[in-house]
Design brief:
The protein is built from 5 helices and 5 strands. By secondary structure, the protein is an alpha/beta fold. A 3-stranded parallel β-sheet has the order 3-4-5, with helices on one face. A two-stranded parallel sheet has the order 1-2. Helix 4 crosses helix 5. The protein is globular and about 45 Å long.
């Protein structure tokens, strides 16, 4: 935090196709949240600077007592979204994301990995994708 105060904030760019996929998922009616290991203030700044305010309903960092991979972080976020954890997909790029999804008993943990051959923890994820555009919404009825 002290370093953050001394270094001027910089815009962290979105991953390739991220805005396009976020808009698509939002238009499909999905509730979207960002859970980050950064502070909530910095995640809020990221959302604002990348023009995501209209799409992301919940923004949480790990500065309020919980941190990844604590499943309570995902469970509380789902509760705030008004969604069930077992109906929630976690898309993440770290072991902590996939562990959190598994421990919280989410519907699935999707790993985004641009170089999957270099990542030893991918077996923790249910699905591994190389691009966010691999995510699509299908409708079905039970």
């Amino acid at each position: 935090q002290a370093a953050d105060e001394k270094v001027p904030p910089r815009l962290n760019p979105l991953y390739p196709q991220c805005l396009e996929v976020i808009r698509y998922l939002h238009a499909a009616g999905l509730q979207l949240a960002i859970l980050s290991s950064d502070t909530t203030a910095r995640v809020e700044q990221f959302v604002k600077e990348n023009h995501l305010l209209n799409y992301i309903k919940i923004v949480r960092g790990c500065d309020r007592g919980l941190s990844k991979p604590d499943p309570l972080l995902l469970q509380e976020t789902c509760q705030a979204l008004g969604t069930a954890v077992d109906k929630t997909l976690m898309v993440g790029d770290t072991r902590a994301d996939w562990e959190m999804a598994k421990q919280a008993k989410s519907a699935a943990a999707i790993a985004i990995s641009w170089q999957p051959e270099n990542h030893q923890d991918l077996q923790l994820a249910d699905v591994v994708i190389r691009e966010l555009t691999a995510i699509s919404v299908i409708s079905y009825q039970l």
